[in-house]
Structure formats: structure tokens, C-alpha cells
Design goal:
Helix content is about 30%, strand content about 20%. By secondary structure, it is of the alpha/beta class. It binds adenosine-5'-triphosphate and zinc ion. Its cofactor is Zn(2+).
């Protein structure tokens, strides 16, 4: 036995070092320094200094038997923890649940702008024109240093001949230096108030509370009753959402990597979460309100009440740029406290982000509106979290950490004692099943707020239409054509919706609508051009491509698909006098293009708006009386068990854009499969009916919400290596597979090659997310991957491409 040297015990901190390499080290805490989990610290690292975040703190006796002395950390960069204990606990939970490193989670939790010390300066570099150069110098610059010439030109036209350095582009630094040497410009530190909204948002007229309908009032009362509980009974038993995050196990910090020995840590947040039955008032709330039922009005009034009670409010929207109207309505309603409203969006500069973040943390901004990552906004005294359009896929982050914003919101609400309201006209089946199981409380708005009825939905059978028009790729039925003509005559507006989900193609017969499906999985088979085969992306079942339709023997069985551009061209020919505009990703490259287009549409300068998924969201145009859905089928036959759910959601949401004013709305749905349940239930505005039959299918085929589902993907520019890696992982996952887990076969992804990389994937299913994640993490930890292969694990995957 060795003699362990005696060392005076000292409290220690486990520190995650800033930077790309995820280093975690333990440091001793110097006497009296108030270091807590979540604090930012300066530490010695080899011969240098570094900054980092304290993940956990251990008491003196924890270091007593280490056998060596830890280096002490230097100092605190901030007197208070930047991350509250609750948020740190949330971070650990996310890391464990989604199988991500704690560093990757901290990175989204505390944005880079906040971690970088430079941004803390309330000044920023600005460039001023010192002496305007003479003609000759200018001409020389133009020839020899075009960049410098541009800068001079910009400054000449700028107010006070001054511009922030950042406005000159990222590479401007050296050019400015040369100009400074020549004595032409000067760099100064400029005091600035960075107001992210300062640039050109339209004027917003303040609004006041509307008188609520009985249903709205009942919903508001229930929400407020729930948040009341939050304020008076902090120690209440927690809710336990499932099929969202399961929060019965306490989050434990991930072990430190590298040379650090295990260190017993006091748990970040103190109290471990225990499971317990929730009472009605504490459960997350699902607000199911039909389109136009006035959910937003309920959010607004609930938010006001919670703010008045002294607590803060977080509003999550699927995507800021696609939900401009929701944001506008919040701004308008809270116009009196405009300086307490923070809108977080991806266009914020680093400096703006830094300012907003600290405004929020200090309690100056008390209502925060933002997309997914705003779920981490450091609001103190959080009272209410509103998740608008909770069914939207964009809440799932498609990069590490692959968290779901809605599920994290539910967990955060639980940790902070805040009421969580998930609002939607088309609940995700996960949330819906939670209301059936009594885990979420269900509130309903069944009527449109303006007293209008839901629009009439007509389904057009395109099989008959293509016979009538003797064309295989027709996408304008006679019915839709005459309806549009009618609207043009009456000076009413039309939205045409093109469903373009899924590049993966299914085989569909234009004569009978038959779609080739997997006999084992109830999913459309995907056509693989490379080997001319149909493949099931769940079980691997393969079939030859039929030369005739297996159903009706028609040889015309074809691959479907057409784009918005082509549709626009055709419509311009058919309706030469109409003012037509197109909204899709291509058309929106330019900054503010979406806003300008929507404004023009609102001002009735556009008759027909053609678009993709984008126009399905939250838009409200009173003069739109016709909505056409050109190809309701396409999303239906992608290799994804949620395909039917997505189509139902899309049809319902798109249809919801019609007839929102005093005029009645009509919806025309063109489809090759008019009898598919998604289309029929959407047509009858029957969410309950849809959910019932869809849940039955999910139960039968063992899909979420009755199981957890994860996808493991390997990618490489080298096809064989990607495939081989996944096969190896598959083999290892199969060895001592925990009971209850179903391991799918390794297969080429539906999107076989993307960004030059070949992709292979396998699906895992099981009753518990944690068990799944842990098993995969363990296998990954002991498998050394080839350098040119990337492996991605996606828990609760929403995308199977
Ligand atoms: N109590 C009310 N009295 C009168 N009008 C109302 C009331 N509540 C809402 N409205 C109006 O009804 C319209 C639809 O409401 P809102 O947009 O809030 O519905 P929503 O449920 O959020 O719709 P969607 O989910 O389709 O976006 C809006 O113009 C809103 O101003
Ligand atoms: Zn199958």
C-alpha cells in the first residue's frame, strides 16, 4: 500500500472550459470565494489562463481522499452565477436524455455572445472619416485597394460620416487599419444603445383586451388557476409528462472526461426530482382551439395577468420569421411596456444578443418572445410559458443537442413552478395522448372567435380529373380554376398551397391513386433510382418496381412531384390578368422579402399567393376566401409514420387561413387519394376522429406515442465506410440489448446522399428514452469510429430522412 499524502481538504469546483474541445477539470476553490454551480470563472490551464463554467461544486471532504492537491481557480468573472441552478439542472437533463455532451448544451444555454467577454463592453468600434480624400487618392484607391475605396464611399454617405465597424463586413478590419495609417479614417469607441428593433419594423398600433367568449374565458380562468398554484405552493408535487420528457429520474451530471478523477458532487439543483401524481391545476395545459378560435387573445390576457402578479412570461413560436403576426400582436398588446418586451431572433448581432440576454437576466425584460432556443432565456421568476403551435416540427433542433423546444419547455415549467400552455389547432399525437392519460390538462376552444363557421372543404378526385383532361401531370382541376376566376372577379384573395414535403418519392398510380406500401410497416415504399427498387425504410423490405399498377393494371404508374416555380408559371398562363406572387425558400433569399410580400398581400396588392408549408402558419388575412391545396397527397406517402399526421395538420392549418373575415371561406383540396383518412377527417374538421384512428395505427405498429423512437445515422463521403460503421454499431447494439428495445436494420437513408455524404441509418424503439440513449451511448463510447465517418444520434427523432 502506498502512503497517501495528507492534503488539507478544500472545496472544489468542476469547470467546463470554454472552447471547442469540451475539457472538464476540477479546481480548488480559494477561501471565501462564493463559487456556485453556473458561475463563470477564470482558471489556470497548463501555462495559460482560460474561462469556463462551473458545472458542480463539491464540499471539502469530497477532496480529502483525492491524494493530490487541485490547482485553485483564479477568480469569478461575474459575482452571480450566469446560469441559475434550475437551468443548470435542465442542461444536465437534456444532456442525459438526448445523449449530448453537457458542453454542447451549455453552449445553447449561454449563447456565445454572452460567454465572450468582449461583448460586455457597452461600446463598440466605429469608423469615422477623418479627412475626405482628394480625387487623386480616391482614384488610386479604386484601382489598387477596392475594399478601402468601398469603405470610404460608404463613410462619405453615412450620417456624420460614421459607421459601426461591424457594418463594414467581417473582413473590413485590415482595410480600416490601412486607411487609418493613411490618416483617412479614425477608429473610435462608441457608446451605443443596441436596440434590435430599431431598424425599420412597421409601426405597431397598441391594442386593448377584447371581451372574451365563454370558451375563451373558461380557458383563461383555468390557466390562471394553474399559475396561481405555482405562486402559492412552491413545494407541490411535480407533474410528470410522458411522451414528452419523462422527468421522474433526477438528472445527474455527466462524468468528467480527461484526466480528472471522479469527484462526488453536490447535486446542481439540490433537490432531486421525485415522481408523483400531479393534481389538475399543476399539469401542463394543452389548449386545443380550432383555427381562428382566439387562442392568441387568451395567451395575451393570461400573459398580462401573470406579469401583473410580478412573474415573467416566455412565449415560444415555431419560427420568428414565419410567425410575424403573433409577434406583432404581442408587441401591440404590450405597447405600454415595450421596454420590457424582448424578441429573440436569429438576426440579432452578437452585441444585441448580449444586451438582450442581460436585460432578461436582470429582470428588465419580463416578457420574452422567441423561437426554440428562447426556451433557455434566463428569465427570473418565470410564471408562464406559452408554446404556440406546439405540433410544429421546427421546435426540434436538428443539430447537437437535438432537443425538442416544447418538451424542454414542459420540463422547465415543471422545474420552475411555471404554468406551461401548449396551444394548437392540431395537437401532436404525443401531447394528445398525454391528455388522454391525464398527464396534461385539456382545454378546448371549439368555435371561431369572430362567430364565423369553419370553411367548407371540397375534395377533388384528381384521378378523374386527369382522365377528363387527358393529361398525366395536371395540377389544376376545373373546379379550382373556376373558383379562382370567381374570386378574381369579386376582388377577393386566394392562397394556393403546394405540399412539397419529402424529396423521397413514392410510387403512385395516377389512374387509381394506389401507392406501393410496405406489407409490414404500413408505410409507403421509397423509390431508389440507383438500383431501381422500392425499399421500406423501417424494416428493409424490398420490392421490384411494378411496370403496371398492382391495383388497376394501368401502366401509367409514375413518380410524382412538381415545384412552386412550375406552378407559378402555369398559373400565370391560365390567369394572365391576375397578380400572382410566390412564397418559398427560393423566393425569400432577400432580407425582409417575406415581410414585404405579406404586407403586399395584406394590402391587397396580390390576388393569388402561391406557397409551401410556410403559408400554413398563423397568418390572418380577412379578405382570403379561397384556399386551394394543389397536391394533398405528396406528404402522405413519405417513409415516415407521422406522414398522415402531418398531412392532417397541414390541411387543417391551411384551410384555417380561409374565411377569417366577414366573408365565408372555401377550401378546395386536390388529391389522388380522396378517401385517405387524413384528408377525410381534415375535411370534416374532425381532430378527435383523426386522432382516434391514427393512435390505433400507432399502437398496432408500435410507434410513438406508444413507444420512444430514436434514429442512429452514419455519414461519410466514403459510402462503404459509412455503411460498415453502421453495421458494426448495429452488431454491437445487438449484443446485450436491454429488454424491450427493438433494433431496426441498418439501411441506406431515404436521402441516400446529401452534401456529398452517404447516409445510413437504423431505428431504435423502446418504452424508455433513457434506456435507449444510455445503451447507444455506451456502445458509441467503446467503438472507435473511422475518422471520416460521422455518427449522429437523434432521440425522439421527427425526421427520418
Ligand atoms: N373575444 C374575441 N372577440 C372578438 N374577436 C376576437 C376575440 N378573440 C379573438 N378575436 C379575433 O379573432 C381572430 C382570430 O383570433 P386568433 O388569431 O387569436 O385565433 P387563433 O386561435 O390564434 O388562430 P390560429 O391558430 O388560426 O392562428 C383575430 O382577428 C382576433 O382578433
Ligand atoms: Zn417495412
Amino acid at each position: 500500500m502506498f502512503d497517501v499524502p495528507k492534503i488539507a481538504p478544500m472545496p472544489a469546483a468542476r469547470v467546463l472550459i470554454d472552447g471547442p474541445s469540451e475539457l472538464v477539470f476540477d479546481y480548488a476553490i480559494p477561501d471565501g470565494l462564493p463559487v456556485q454551480p453556473g458561475c463563470r470563472v477564470r482558471v489556470p490551464l497548463r501555462n495559460k489562463n482560460a474561462t469556463g463554467t462551473v458545472l458542480a461544486v463539491a464540499s471539502d471532504d469530497a477532496t480529502a481522499d483525492l491524494g493530490f492537491a487541485l490547482r485553485p481557480l483564479h477568480s469569478l468573472t461575474d459575482p452571480e452565477p450566469l446560469i441559475t441552478p434550475k437551468l443548470l439542472e435542465l442542461a444536465h437533463w437534456i444532456a442525459n436524455y438526448y445523449g449530448a455532451s453537457i458542453e454542447s448544451v451549455i453552449r445553447v444555454l449561454v449563447p456565445e455572445a454572452v460567454r465572450t467577454e468582449d461583448n460586455s463592453a457597452k461600446t463598440r468600434k466605429a469608423v469615422v472619416l477623418e479627412s475626405p480624400p482628394d480625387e487623386e487618392t480616391l482614384a488610386q484607391l479604386a484601382k489598387r485597394a477596392p475594399k478601402q475605396h468601398t469603405i470610404i464611399t460608404l463613410l462619405t454617405h453615412a450620417p456624420e460620416h460614421k459607421l459601426p465597424l461591424t457594418d463594414l463586413g467581417t473582413a473590413a478590419g485590415t482595410s480600416v487599419k490601412s486607411l487609418e495609417k493613411k490618416g483617412l479614417v479614425k477608429l473610435i469607441d462608441q457608446e451605443v444603445r443596441r436596440d434590435p428593433e430599431a431598424d425599420g419594423t412597421d409601426e405597431i398600433l397598441p391594442t386593448t383586451d377584447l371581451k372574451l367568449s365563454d370558451e375563451q374565458q373558461a380557458a383563461l380562468t383555468a390557466i390562471l388557476a394553474s399559475s396561481e398554484v405555482g405562486t402559492t405552493a412552491p413545494g407541490r408535487p411535480p407533474a410528470e409528462p410522458e411522451n414528452g420528457p419523462r422527468i421522474s429520474e433526477s438528472a445527474s451530471p455527466t462524468p468528467a472526461k480527461g484526466r480528472t478523477p471522479p469527484l462526488p458532487t453536490s447535486h446542481a439543483a439540490g433537490t432531486p426530482i421525485k415522481s408523483g401524481l400531479a393534481t389538475a391545476a399543476q399539469r401542463p395545459i394543452l389548449l386545443h382551439g380550432v383555427t381562428g378560435s382566439g387562442k392568441t387573445e387568451v395567451y395575451l390576457q393570461a400573459a398580462r395577468k401573470v406579469l401583473e402578479s410580478g412573474r415573467t412570461v416566455l412565449v415560444l413560436v415555431p419560427e420568428i420569421s414565419l410567425t410575424p403576426q403573433t409577434v406583432r400582436r404581442f408587441r401591440a398588446r404590450f405597447a405600454d411596456i415595450q421596454d420590457q418586451v424582448a424578441v429573440l431572433h436569429s438576426n440579432l448581432s452578437q452585441g444585441e444578443r448580449f444586451d438582450e440576454w442581460h436585460r432578461i437576466r436582470k429582470g428588465k425584460a419580463r416578457i420574452v418572445i422567441g423561437a426554440r432556443s428562447a426556451v433557455f432565456a434566463p428569465l427570473p421568476d418565470l410564471g408562464l410559458i406559452l408554446v404556440d403551435e406546439e405540433h410544429e416540427n421546427s421546435y426540434k433542433q436538428d443539430q447537437i443537442p437535438r432537443y425538442h423546444g416544447r418538451d424542454v419547455a414542459v420540463l422547465r415549467g415543471h422545474l420552475e413552478g411555471a404554468t406551461v400552455v401548449l396551444g394548437t389547432a392540431t395537437p401532436s399525437l404525443e401531447s394528445w395522448q398525454n391528455t388522454i392519460d391525464g398527464k396534461y390538462q385539456l382545454l378546448r376552444l371549439t368555435q371561431r372567435a369572430d362567430g364565423q363557421s369553419l370553411p367548407l372543404i371540397r375534395v377533388i378526385d384528381m384521378r378523374l380529373e386527369s382522365k377528363k383532361q387527358k393529361s398525366k401531370d395536371t395540377f389544376l382541376s376545373e373546379r379550382l380554376r373556376s373558383a379562382i376566376t370567381d374570386r378574381l372577379e369579386k376582388n377577393e384573395q386566394t392562397i394556393l398551397f403546394l405540399n412539397r414535403r419529402g424529396f423521397a418519392r413514392s410510387l403512385q398510380c395516377p389512374a387509381c391513386g394506389h401507392v406501393c406500401q410496405c406489407p409490414h410497416c404500413a408505410l409507403a415504399l421509397t423509390y431508389h433510382r440507383t438500383d431501381d427498387r422500392l425499399i421500406c425504410h423501417i424494416c428493409g423490405h424490398q420490392a421490384v418496381v411494378p411496370r403496371k399498377c398492382p391495383e388497376c393494371r394501368d401502366p401509367a404508374i409514375v413518380l410524382q412531384g412538381f415545384g412552386t416555380q412550375k406552378v407559378e408559371d402555369v398559373f400565370r398562363k391560365v390567369f394572365p390578368a391576375a397578380r400572382i406572387a410566390r412564397i418559398d425558400a427560393d423566393a425569400l433569399r432577400k432580407k425582409n422579402a417575406l415581410r414585404d410580400l405579406l404586407n403586399a398581400f395584406r394590402a391587397r396588392k396580390i390576388d393569388v399567393l402561391i406557397g409551401t408549408q410556410m403559408i400554413a402558419k398563423g397568418l390572418h388575412f380577412p379578405n382570403v376566401t379561397l384556399v386551394g391545396i394543389l397536391n394533398a397527397d405528396i406528404g402522405l406517402h413519405v417513409p415516415d409514420f407521422r406522414a398522415g399526421e402531418r398531412v392532417f395538420q397541414l390541411l387543417t392549418q391551411v384551410a384555417g387561413r380561409a374565411g377569417r373575415g366577414s366573408l365565408e371561406g372555401e377550401v378546395i383540396v386536390q388529391t389522388f387519394t380522396p378517401h385517405s383518412p387524413s384528408i377525410q377527417f381534415a375535411r370534416h374538421h374532425d381532430f378527435d376522429g383523426f386522432a382516434e384512428q391514427e393512435l390505433e395505427m400507432r399502437r398496432q405498429f408500435y410507434f410513438p406515442p406508444f413507444t420512444r423512437c430514436a434514429v442512429l445515422t452514419s455519414r461519410s463521403t466514403h459510402e462503404r465506410r459509412a455503411e460498415f460503421t453502421l453495421e458494426t454499431l448495429h452488431r454491437r447494439l445487438k449484443e446485450d440489448l436491454p429488454p424491450g428495445i427493438e433494433l431496426g436494420e441498418p439501411l441506406p437513408s431515404p436521402l441516400v446522399k446529401a452534401h456529398g455524404q452517404f447516409r445510413f441509418q437504423l431505428m431504435l424503439r423502446g418504452p424508455k428514452a433513457r434506456t435507449l440513449t444510455k445503451h447507444v451511448q455506451q456502445v458509441l463510447a467503446k467503438t472507435s469510429l473511422p475518422e471520416d465517418v460521422t455518427v449522429v444520434f437523434d432521440m425522439d427523432a421527427l425526421s427520418f430522412t
